[in-house]
Amino acid sequence: MTTLRDAAMNSRAWPFEEARRVLKRYEKKAPEKGHVLFETGYGPSGLPHIGTFGEVQRTTMIRRAFEVISDIPTRLLCFSDDMDGMRKVPDNVPAPEMLREHLQRPLTSVPDPFGEYPSFGDHNNAMLRRFLDTFGFEYEFASATEYYKAGRFDHMLLLCCERYDAIMEIMLASLREERQQTYSCFLPIHPETGRVLYVPMKHVDAREGTITFDDETGREWTLPVTGGHVKLQWKPDFGMRWAALGVDFEMYGKDHSTNTPIYDGICRVLGGRAPEHFTYELFLDENGQKISKSRGNGLTIDEWLTYASTESLGYYMYQKPKTAKRLYFDVIPKAVDEYHQQLKAYPAQDLDARLANPVWHIHGGNPPESHMVVPFAMLLNLASVAGAKDKAGLWGFIRRYAPDASPEANPDLDAAAGYALRYFRDFVAPTRVFRAPTERERAAMQDLAARLRDWQGGLDAEALQSLVFAVGKDHGFEPLRDWFTALYEVLLGASQGPRFGGFIALYGIEETVALIGRALAGELG
What we know:
This protein is an alpha/beta fold. It has 24 helices and twelve strands. The relative contact order is 0.08.
């Protein structure tokens, strides 16, 4: 009999493939630190977006897969580069004029424009942690400001002084000639202004552990590299952190991929072993542009959760991580329905198929049962024609279609009904465009209404679908897709829609006949 570990060692699901790469690092001996360290990095220059969350979600999937194939303990560290200087004011936050006064100061030294936390960096860190906690992730949060100021990187920073030339050799090879003249891997924090300075070094004293430089006014300063007086530029910081913490795995977006040799090289210069990497494709907004924290395009975490469950977001994150994907409101309905399709398929699958099913990875090997007897897309169409203002209005139709369903027995369906009403109100209703039928379409819809009046087959969705098919064939629609498109555009005000037989079963025979009558009378547009 195949064990779970045996099946996982052969699974082609991408989290298991990545987990096996991590395990191979320790095929000869276990890690001296006693655990395998997974890390995700976060730049809190703006409000967290779903792409940020995706790194933690996907890394957790790999971590859980690793725990199936190995007994080595694991940790997940979510590291925030909150000591980074604020380079520009984000477009989607209040009090921009106030923030401009603090440009180039570390994010944890910039006042919170929302007035809720000690700093802007603390606010954005809290937003990230709130969602990670809501989703139930098991992780440890780390602040670069706290690590630098508490001296947790002091040993590595002193080593950076000793090996400054080797680090600079790696960095300078990647820079244009003009940038080479002023570049330093060290970024001093100005003792008076508190700003992060991008200035060349006049002297690096490895024995004393100090750097000497001129500020923008020409004044010379000498600062210790320890104790939070200095931080590293972000590329050297990546490699230093890997070496300091013994990171075994980190993923990042494709825009970082060309920097991988730099990160790895600096890690090795500082005596560390470069971790395993996973490069994912970027998320795009509705216009195909890369999502940016500062621009605030694409979706925020809270926006997704306004219209769908966290599990549906997990499903979206699992799918094809090495393929660029649009991350906008219109992907939500499909993600919800496909997630529940996978949940329903899971109980009947064999072990190999279960390990390849996204829900295994979303739920750490213990997916729940789906009680979603009505698809989300169908709920949207029901909301479109039923005129329901609240979940109770939708449940009147749902109970007739599925008599055994209830908000108590089907909590996922009950939640989806509320999500569907909000989604319909905000995205479907404003874009509906009803059109008048052609003469052939009018005749076919009159025929459909007549056949429905005489229907004796109950609310059998498949039988009703066959009836709709028959009407389309009898009226010469070729391809039949044109018939269904006509139904959607004339009756629902959209170019696409649900399986129409299922819609009739949910909405009701008499109600559908009445809907057709209103449409043919021109009362819907």
